[in-house]
TrEMBL record:
UniProt-recorded name of the protein: Pentatricopeptide repeat-containing protein
Keyword vocabulary terms for this entry: Repeat
Domain of life: Eukaryota
PPR repeat residues: 77-111
Gene3D superfamilies linked: Tetratricopeptide repeat domain (1.25.40.10)
A Pfam match: PPR
Family: Belongs to the PPR family. P subfamily.
InterPro entries membership: PPR-containing_protein (IPR050667), PPR_rpt (IPR002885), TPR-like_helical_dom_sf (IPR011990)
Length: 129
C-alpha cells in the first residue's frame, strides 16, 4: 500500500488509533518510521493530527508515548504541547498536564492559559486552577 501511495493522513491516523487502543505502542511509532521509508517524511502537522485524534479518543497516555519517542525526529511546537495538556485535563490527570505545562515553559513556548482554563471549567476542576 505504501509503494502505491494508497495511504493518506486519514488512513494513517486510523491505523495508529487502533494500534494505540490495542496498546501496541511500539508499532505506533514504527508506523511513523515505515511511512517515512515510503516517502511520507516526518512532519509536525502529521504528528499533531495523530496526537489530536488520540487525545480526542481519550488515549492521552498513548499520545504521550508517541510524542516522547518522535521528539528526536520531529521538532515539537506549542500546538503539540497544547493538545497533550488539554487531553490530560480532559481525562482528569492534572499532574501530567502541569508537567507538560512546565515543559512547554522550559522550552520557551508561548503559554495558552485560555485553553487550560477552559478545560478546567468544562471538567468542573476550578480548584485545580
Amino acid at each position: 500500500m505504501g509503494e502505491r501511495k494508497l495511504v493518506n493522513d486519514k488512513t494513517f491516523r486510523i491505523g495508529v488509533k487502533y494500534l494505540a487502543e490495542a496498546r501496541e505502542l511500539k508499532k505506533c511509532v514504527e508506523i511513523f518510521h515505515l511511512m517515512n521509508a515510503y516517502g511520507f517524511v516526518y512532519e509536525l502537522e502529521r504528528l499533531n493530527k495523530v496526537i489530536e485524534t488520540l487525545c480526542g479518543e481519550k488515549l492521552v497516555f498513548e499520545a504521550k508515548y508517541i510524542v516522547m519517542k518522535m521528539k528526536e525526529f520531529v521538532q515539537l511546537n506549542g500546538v503539540t504541547y497544547k493538545l497533550l495538556i488539554v487531553g490530560f485535563c480532559e481525562v482528569g490527570d492534572m499532574i501530567e498536564a502541569s508537567k507538560f505545562w512546565n515543559l512547554m515553559v522550559d522550552e520557551g513556548f508561548e503559554l495558552e492559559v485560555e485553553a487550560m482554563m477552559d478545560t478546567f471549567f468544562k471538567n468542573n476542576r476550578v480548584e485545580a486552577f
